[in-house]
Amino acid sequence: xxxxxxxxxxxxxxxxxxxxxxxxxxxxxxxxxxxxxxxxxxxxxxxxxxxxxxxxxxxxxxxxxxxxxxxxxxxxxxxxxxxxxxxxxxxxxxxxxxxxxxxxxxxxxxxxxxxxxxxxxxxxxxxxxxxxxxxxxxxxxxxxxxxxxxxxxxxxxxxxxxxxxxxxxxxxxxxxxxxxxxxxxxxxxxxxxxxxxxxxxxxxxxxxxxxxxxxxxxxxxxxxxxxxxxxxxxxxxxxxxxxxxxxxxxxxxxxxxxxxxxxxxxxxxxxxxxxxxxxxxxxxxxxxxxxxxxxxxxxxxxxxxxxxxxxxxxxxxxxxxxxxxxxxxxxxxxxxxxxxxxxxxxxxxxxxxxxxxxxxxxxxxxxxxxxxxxxxxxxxxxxxxxxxx
Length: 389
Ligand code: GLA
Description:
8% of the residues lie in helices and 37% in strands. The protein contains 3 helices and 29 strands. The strands form 8 sheets. The chain has a 9-stranded antiparallel beta sheet, covered by helices on one side. A 5-stranded antiparallel beta sheet has the order 1-2-3-4-5, with no helix packed on it. The longest helix has 19 residues, at 3-21. The radius of gyration is 20 Å and the shape is globular. Alpha-D-galactopyranose is lined by residues 106-107, 117, 142, 249, 289, 326, 328, 332, 352, 354.
């Protein structure tokens, strides 16, 4: 284990120990840290067209970082972090109110599932049964279908302790929902720590074998408040291989070397440096929209990605226990969405780094399995750590 991972694992262990010890504290509680406002507050965020209430939770840490999460889609609606000059700004794309999220934005800030990413033709065979999912992305099923986990209202409770606070979101996906087999009980916990980490813990159980692949679909722009495109951000990915795709963005099955290609991000490289090169994979993705195979020595949490925004000095580090990460360079943003504070989200004004299993795994026996069976527990963790240089 490298020193950064070891330090991170240790601080997470402490955080979780504290969370467990204080596990009874399930609601926002009055100020306990001298000089600091309560770490969690809750308010009504809006109402669904059928009247169901959507709540918003605001988490804050001792460093002044704040994060808002809503129960619709388990969406992170804002994340305000500090830059090198000490200025706070919002580094995720989104809207000022529920209405924007209800008009089918491209998964801004949401938890995507039951199967993040694509399943070819929305079809797979499991234990001899063929299943058909709704097709919602060309010929394929994307991010759980027409009404995935990004479009449902989750149940939530909050917690806080001396060094962190968080929200636990739960959702039960019924047997057959969006074509998937089995009742799936899902829990996603967001924890904001005083170490400026957002820890995302996923947990699920099922009563029938089902594919599952959960991910977080935040669009980041580390410049803050989406003031320019993300092409100048520098990216490093711990990936020597990626999964090339066909023209509909389904993996061919090959694990190709990144060596000598625009997909080599093994050292910090501006996202825009090679995005315009003539390359069939970049043409298929209209830029980067590819799953990278993470190089890992152990099965636990390991460093997957680093992003540096040179002007603000903001740095994002991502750690995960997942085998892959989808790097999407915001290619479908085209200026038709107006988000928070009236900002127009132009082409490539945000990027996503979605930790996950490989796309279309249910149709690729050679990929790590995504099948969850009754009696098993789906558990996964991703950590986003924010800093500045
Ligand atoms: C994922 C996909 C992209 C795109 C975005 C949402 O990241 O891989 O192709 O569909 O979601 O627009």
